[in-house]
Amino acid sequence: METALRGRTAEVRIDPQGPVVIIGEKINPTGQKKLAEALKEDNYGYIKKLAERQLEHGAHVLDINVGVPGLDEVALLPKIAKRIASDFDVPLCLDSGNPEALAAGLKEVPGKPLVNSVNGENERLEAVLPLVKDYQAAVIGLTMDEQGIPNEPERRLAIAEKILNRAVQLGIPKQDVVIDTLVLTVGADQSAAKVTLRTIELVREKLGVNISLGASNVSFGLPDRQTINQAFMALAIGAGANCMITDPVKLAPTILACDLVLGRDPYGKRYIVSTRKRLA
Amino acid sequence: MDILKQMAEAVISGDAEHCASLAKQTIENNLDPIEAIQQGFSKGMDTVGVKFESGEMFLPEMMQAAEAMNAGVAVLKPTIESAGSGSLTEFGKAVLATIQGDMHDIGKNIVKLLLSTSGFEIIDLGKDVKVELIIDKAEEIHPDVIGVSALMTTTMAYMPELVQELQELGIKEEFPVMVGGAPVTEDWAKEIGADGYAKDAVGAVRIAKGLAKK
After folding, report:
1. Do B182 and A31 count as a contact with CB atoms less than 8 A apart?
2. Which domain range does residue B106 map to?
3. Residue that terminates a domain, selected from B52, B83, B114
4. Do A185 and B103 lie within an 8 Å CB cutoff?
5. Which residues on B lie below 8 Å from A77 (Cβ)?
């Protein structure tokens, strides 16, 4: 099952048989003081640099989140997304908890973006899915609902099914829903990542849709986070996740190595070319 | 090594069984259980807090230490209660909640665990807790501090609402509010009129103790 995303000119296909798609996560002010300042001061240059750097390091899609307390996200998301879309040809991933901001962003973004995100909460499904349908976008569905993030893989699968059914009922093609199985830190609960890995297997097997993952949470509170992130990412990709929302500067090499090891990189070309560039 | 030192060491190494057996020893030796906690287990937690903040110890170690301490305190609790001489909750009551609309309660639960080793009685309202419910509870049980957390910029917006409601009801002075969570910053906490902010659970304990004393 293939999810096609389009930017101004570039197309990105998320496909379980193909290489992992990297969504650059760095345009997100949570925990990034400098970016929050840049957004407040309308310093687009800084944001543009973040985009450039991620694309140089292998991002295929750029996540755009502009949620800063006190700033008007409904005005800011379309504004920033529009500028990024005119400077870069890749697809965007519009990231907001505010459906109005998503609607405003979708209006301004060319091609077929990814909406980040909907989850199993009825209110959220009702607010976001019609937008996805109207703008013929694709959407990430998080496996959480009114009760929170379940600890049982089967319950996360059930939420994924619910999201998928609702989308299909509305007329959104099944392949335009990407399921995010969520991962919590193993720093607080050492079984947290295992639950996610099992959920990935279940979603891959039962639903067949593409699976995304924001994989930097897993190591919170632990030393040498990079090693944990790499290990987890490799296991998640092995289990069937094929779209990573992450920092490509840190993790693209691991992802490319995973593709090579899993036989999705003929002649190791992608790995070799990118590694040569990185080490030059 | 004297028993109080051993108690501190057992907490630092996160050894729940050892904490429990040391607690039994203090009872057998007729030591004051409150003093044993304060001069033994708590000293261990203090060290853990310092080492966590300096980056020498990590989250799972801190959680294990807190759980070990609680295992020891559980052994001492009946003795303390039957003697009626001292209190395990010298700092009073803390109401904790993950704010309205937010399902992310890991951070709140870590703060809860750490506060439970630090002389607070915890009233945990859970996650996605409506502002009105927090206020109702505060009026009902008169906590010494209210702690709320959020992981999302969208749900953070309920924090100023909580502060404002308390102000409007004229009870803000009575119930200090501390806030935390990934998107929350110290500047923002000041801006919304919160009484305290901490970037992690160790900081939250320090802030809570300061606010509860007032």
Report:
1. yes
2. 92-213
3. B83
4. no
5. none
